[in-house]
Amino acid sequence: xxxxxxxxxxxxxxxxxxxxxxxxxxxxxxxxxxxxxxxxxxxxxxxxxxxxxxxxxxxxxxxxxxxxxxxxxxxxxxxxxxxxxxxxxxxxxxxxxxxxxxxxxxxxxxxxxxxxxxxxxxxxxxxxxxxxxxxxxxxxxxxxxxxxxxxxxxxxxxxxxxxxxxxxxxxxxxxxxxxxxxxxxxxxxxxxxxxxxxxxxxxxxxxxxxxxxxxxxxxxxxxxxxxxxxxxxxxxxxxxxxxxxxxxxxxxxxxxxxxxxxxxxxxxxxxxxxxxxxxxxxxxxxxxxxxxxxxxxxxxxxxxxxxxxxxxxxxxxxxxxxxxxxxxxxxxxxxxxxxxxxxxxxxxxxxxxxxxxxxxxxxxxxxxxxxxxxxxxxxxxxxxxxxxxxxxxxxxxxxxxxxxxxxxxxxxxxxxxxxxxxxxxxxxxxxxxxxxxxxxxxxxxxxxxxxxxxxxxxxxxxxxxxxxxxxxxxxxxxxxxxxxxxxxxxxxxxxxxxxxxxxxxxxxxxxxxxxxxxxxxxxxxxxxxxxxxxxxxxxxxxxxxxxxxxxxxxxxxxxxxxxxxxxxxx
Length: 570
Known about the structure:
The chain is of the alpha/beta class. It has a six-stranded parallel sheet with strand order 7-6-5-8-9-10, sandwiched between helices. The chain has a four-stranded antiparallel sheet with strand order 1-2-4-3. It is globular and about 95 Å long. The protein has helices at residues 3-9, 23-34, 53-73, 78-86, 119-139, 152-159, 185-188, 227-238, 249-261, 295-304, 309-316, 334-337, 362-381, 396-408, 424-440, 450-457, 460-474, 484-496, 515-522, 538-556; strands at 45-50, 97-104, 143-147, 165-174, 272-278, 320-327, 342-344, 386-392, 478-481, 504-506. It has 20 helices and ten strands.
């Protein structure tokens, strides 16, 4: 056959004859797969042949289990469910040959070109191998069916596939029993039609990203300075069946939220917590942190599996949680990437060691700011009006202390705290190292540019937090700030747009040195004092119920006008 004839005849096949697949056909197809391009000659593709019927039967049971879940999700749509049940989705038991094609991620430990590879490029290499194999089978009059409706964890365990390998799917191989009318089977059965041609657009204009971070522009943030609205909210709060001011800070929170949301009857809608996580180059030296850098990755995996403090508090308070890899020094496996609340926006494998060079480039900083903005815009489209912000990154309390020192002109010793798990000797070493950094970059000079400071000492997660603060305030959202590190990002945002704090609520006073002075400068009064120094957004998650209580008081508590309460005796 000519090449395009092979392309045209290649089908995702579900109906096979009983014809045996000759060894020479299979060997030729596997040889074609091995000839496919692979990034860096990584040879990351592995093959497993399945011919035993009892093994096919066991895999078929896994398919049935997952397929029943799909059918259960379609119960509300009878017509769609019936159409789905008519589809022939697999031929695991019927096809003569079963094949598993898997990506071996262990090759990343010995990658052949450059300093690292990525999980995505390895998998793409495996897909190239699959396509070659498929086309070779088609040329010889055979075909392949791709089965992906499987619980891949159970699938791997059943067949004892190594943890560092991840299957693309289960592939049925045999001689096709039909050509499906020379069209894709799903199209023939009316599930979906494939377009005749691909959509191709020519790009004729450049849209360059600003190469200078100082030129990066955010939407103008207006202050919450509606005097009439504020007076109405104060009057409403004072008019409740209680002495004026008896609910303390809750009353001022109710007024502030009303001013942010521009209503005397505010409502928290779809609150979301975002944790930005990244590594810091200096953490790899061990000079400023007692824990190794790998703990960032380990803790994020703990977040994904729902076992961290922030998971507990978010579940308790019905707070949606998103974890963002802003620049963690690791390559994730596919089973990690499968978590629905995990997004990878990796700028790099951590920042550079700022003892030697600036932590990030100007373009990396701009990208971080843009990413922080994009996450807020996505949540705004989902009708979210309240955002809680958290972070994770071994060594990031050092960056936060340097930000505080540079922007507030406060002596470094008053800014540098112990961070996580630091003893007295480690603290003194940390302070000495950070004093060297401050001197090296002249951070003690007045009026240092906040974005230049962020570029010099990082990190990626703090920069994304800065972008998130600025965009959330521009969108007039309620912002719940967490502890020392997230407040450092707020300091940067405040220097760029002074009105940003009009939209912010300080969730708690951290036990980390310097946080109280940060909040005093920002004129934010913390809701809680629990001696927290965990990070992760835990303080913000704990504060959300108090904010909701303040709003409930404003909206649901009786007014003295409608419920008689005698005033104080004279």
